[in-house]
C-alpha cells in the first residue's frame, strides 16, 4: 500500500491532467508499488476534490464488463468509477471536444435507481426490483494518463469516465427483456458498431449487482435517484471535432449528439 501522501500526490496528478487536458505519466510508473486498493483510494480523493469544487455525485459507472476487456487488462472482474453531474448531457447536445483529451464513445444502458440498494449478497433480481427506469445511454470515455496503462492507472483515473449522454425511451425494467436490447452506433452516417445488452456479463444488471457488493465492502451503496451505467456492449469509437453520432436502440428510441 502507498502512503497517504502518495495517494494525495497521485490524485493531484489526475486533477491537473483533467484541468489542463494534458495526460500525466502513468501512476503505476510514478508509484511502482500501487495496488488496486491504492487506485480506488486515489479515485476517492479525486472525487472528493471535484465535489469540493462544486460537482455533485450523480451515480456510478461500471467498466471492464466484457471478458475480452478483462483479459486485456489482466483482470478477473469489472472496475467502477463515479458519475458527476457536471458530466451529464442530454439527447441532441452539442458537446465540446476540448472538454476531453482523447474521447471515445460506447453504447450502454443506464439504470435509474428507484430505491436505495446495498449489499452484501445483492443479486440481479435485487437490482431489477430496486430500479425505477432503464434508459439508453452513451458513455464518453477519456483517459488522463499516458499509455501503456496498467489497470491501477485506469481505476485511479475514475475508470476512464469522461461524460454520459442519456436519451431515447425511458422504460420500466420489467416492461422489456433488458438482456436483449440491441443498438447500432452510427458515426457521420456510417454504422460503426452494433451490439446487444446480453453481452454485458450475460445480463446488464449483473454488473450493477457486482458493484453493490463491492461498495458494501467500503460501507457504501446505491441511492435512490442515482444513475448507474451498466457497461458497454459495443467497442469504443474514437471521437473527433465535427462528428455526428446516432445510436439507434430500436423500440427504445435513439440518441443523437454532435461534437464541436
Automatic annotation (TrEMBL):
Gene3D superfamilies according to UniProt: Fumarylacetoacetase-like, C-terminal domain
GO CC annotations on file: cytoplasm
Domain of life: Bacteria
Keyword Amino-acid biosynthesis in record: no
Segments crossing the lipid bilayer: none
The entry's keywords: Lyase
InterPro entries tied to this protein: Fumarylacetoacetase-like_C, Fumarylacetoacetase_C_sf, HpcG, Hydratase-Decarb/MhpD_sf
Domain Fumarylacetoacetase-like C-terminal: 86-255
Any Pfam family: FAA_hydrolase
Molecular function as annotated in GO: 2-oxo-hept-3-ene-1,7-dioate hydratase activity; 2-oxopent-4-enoate hydratase activity
NCBIfam families cross-referenced by the UniProt entry: HpaH (TIGR02312)
The name this protein goes by in its record: 2-oxo-hepta-3-ene-1,7-dioic acid hydratase
Amino acid at each position: 500500500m502507498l502512503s497517504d501522501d502518495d495517494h494525495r500526490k497521485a490524485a493531484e496528478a489526475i486533477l491537473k491532467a483533467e484541468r489542463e487536458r494534458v495526460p500525466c505519466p502513468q501512476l503505476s510508473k510514478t508509484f511502482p508499488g500501487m495496488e488496486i486498493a491504492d487506485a480506488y483510494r486515489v479515485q476517492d480523493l479525486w472525487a472528493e476534490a471535484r465535489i469540493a469544487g462544486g460537482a455533485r455525485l450523480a451515480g456510478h459507472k461500471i467498466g471492464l464488463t466484457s471478458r475480452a476487456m478483462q483479459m486485456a487488462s489482466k483482470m478477473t472482474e469489472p472496475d467502477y468509477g463515479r458519475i458527476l453531474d457536471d458530466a451529464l448531457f442530454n439527447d441532441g447536445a452539442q458537446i465540446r471536444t476540448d472538454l476531453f483529451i482523447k474521447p471515445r464513445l460506447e453504447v450502454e444502458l443506464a439504470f435509474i435507481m428507484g430505491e436505495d440498494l446495498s449489499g452484501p449478497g445483492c443479486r440481479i433480481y435485487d437490482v431489477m426490483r430496486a430500479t425505477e427506469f432503464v434508459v439508453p445511454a452513451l458513455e464518453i470515455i477519456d483517459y488522463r494518463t499516458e499509455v501503456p496503462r496498467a489497470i491501477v492507472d485506469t481505476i485511479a483515473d475514475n475508470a476512464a469516465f469522461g461524460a454520459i449522454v442519456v436519451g431515447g425511451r425511458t422504460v420500466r425494467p420489467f416492461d422489456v427483456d433488458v438482456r436483449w436490447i440491441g443498438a447500432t452506433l452510427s458515426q457521420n452516417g456510417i454504422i460503426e458498431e452494433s451490439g446487444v445488452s446480453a453481452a454485458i456479463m450475460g445480463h446488464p444488471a449483473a454488473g450493477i449487482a457486482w458493484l453493490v457488493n463491492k461498495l458494501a465492502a467500503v460501507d457504501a451503496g446505491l441511492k435512490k435517484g442515482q444513475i448507474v451505467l451498466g457497461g458497454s456492449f459495443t467497442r469504443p469509437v474514437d471521437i473527433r471535432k465535427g462528428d455526428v453520432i446516432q445510436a439507434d436502440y430500436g423500440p427504445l428510441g435513439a440518441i443523437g449528439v454532435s461534437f464541436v
